[in-house]
Amino acid sequence: CGWWVLQDQFRLPSEEEIRKLVLPEDCCAFYSMQYAEQRLKDAGYGKSIKNVSDDEDEDDSEKILDDEVRIAPWTLTRTFANALRGKCQLEINGIADPTGI
């Protein structure tokens, strides 16, 4: 083993079918996360980048994180999702504030 074999009854999807499955928003999210990951690696975070899990004490773990990690797309998305579920209030200020105020 160690390789993938295409089954005889499997049909590869056409380009139009693939375009229906992959939305532009999905591509933007994917490339945004890739860019952020590379930016953190270039800044020297390397393998120390970690996603804080929901069952950890968020107050203690959030204090440890640097600003660059706090504005990574996966962190902002998790925080936004928690705000939508009513688990927290969302306040945007500091380095992540797009208005610069």
Order of helices and strands: HHHHH
- Structural Rg: 19 Å
Low-confidence stretches: 52-56
Q: What structural category characterises the helix and strand content?
A: mainly alpha
Cα shape: elongated
The profile of the biggest β sheet is: none
Helix proportion range: 40-55%
According to DSSP, the number of beta strands is 0
Average pLDDT, all residues: 75
Total helical elements? 5
Description:
Helix content is 49%, strand content 0%. The protein has 101 residues and is an all-alpha fold. The N and C termini lie far apart (58 Å). The model is unreliable at 52-56 (pLDDT under 50).
Brief digest:
This protein is 49% helix and 0% strand. It is an all-alpha fold and 101 residues long.
Topology:
Elements: H1 15-21, H2 24-42, H3 58-64, H4 67-70, H5 73-84
Pick out its properties.
single chain; 101 residues; mainly alpha; 5 helices; 0% strand
